[in-house]
Amino acid sequence: MGHGSTAELHDRLEGTTVIRKAETLLFFLVVLLALGVVGAGQADAQAAAEWDNDACLTCHADPGPSMEFPSGEILDLGIDEDRWNDSVHAFWQMQCVQCHSDITATPHDFPTFADTREFAIAGSEECTVCHREQAVIEDSVHAQAREEGNTDAAVCSDCHDPHYTTDPPISHADIPNTCRTCHAEIYDRYAESVHGGALTEGNPDVPTCTDCHGVHDIDGPTHSTFHLFSPQVCAECHADEELMAEYGIRTDVFDTYVADFHGRTITLFQEITPDQDTNAPVCVSCHGVHDIRPADDSMSTVAKENLLVTCQHCHPDADTSFPAAWMSHYWASPDEWPTVFIVRLFYQILIPVVIGGMLIYVAVDVRGRMRRRREVRHG
Asked: Domain map of the chain by residue range?
């Protein structure tokens, strides 16, 4: 074997040694990386086990601890585990620390807030992480009130208990009780109305607060747009023939309103200037808002004995004959308002006959004139 062959063999052996060293180093690196991944996974699993809900319930299971704010208010921090497990957040396997993101150690210090209200407002900010669409509605009356500095305006936790919220949050009949927390005076009027009284008796068809005002985009009655479009809110039920038939209520109430002077004025404002205030009456102007009563109730604003006073809100010079001329949302028929029905029928016949006769007369006259002109031209 020559020198060239020996040198070539030596170089090949050195190259093989280098490759083997590299392979060995790579093998150890892979092993170390695998051990690191496993170790990290074990660390994450340990951290998850440390911060799961069971760990929190170790201290917060009902009866749990309580905290006192500088205001002197006491907040119960105990959680009813059974009610929690029935909640929509438990269904989606939400963890406590996803909402209580300020908790980073255990045991942990109490939150530093002046009172329970400040604590509730700050806590509701966490809701925006998942419920962005509902939380960013900035034109609701509650959001505007908070922007103006009213800390009593409702936040998420005032209506939805964060630990026990279900889907749907509450029953249809319990919605007014939720609103009652802040609007007690309005609730009392609603409870005595035709709607509230029926709801108390278990009728699911009557409207509650959110049916008229909305849920997260609540608009106040002082807003001109809410007032202007309120007849459409009433029409949701009172123009539904199937629903109204169950209670013997006629659906032409809404149609007759739209057909009269008041309704036509409102319709024009809706189409032309929806942002402009109008003094034309809508449903609630005569029937009331939360205290609506049946027309045969002596306390109703549209009862026969009270109707003149109601009309005088807009027509101060009205006398007893003014409401007597109103047909009470009904079309004229042989049974109801027969005189009006006969007069209307008379004009429905007279007007076509008169106009039709005039058209026939004009047509005959034109034909006669044209015939005479032809006779003159032909001598």
From this structure: 3-51, 170-214, 219-331, 332-379
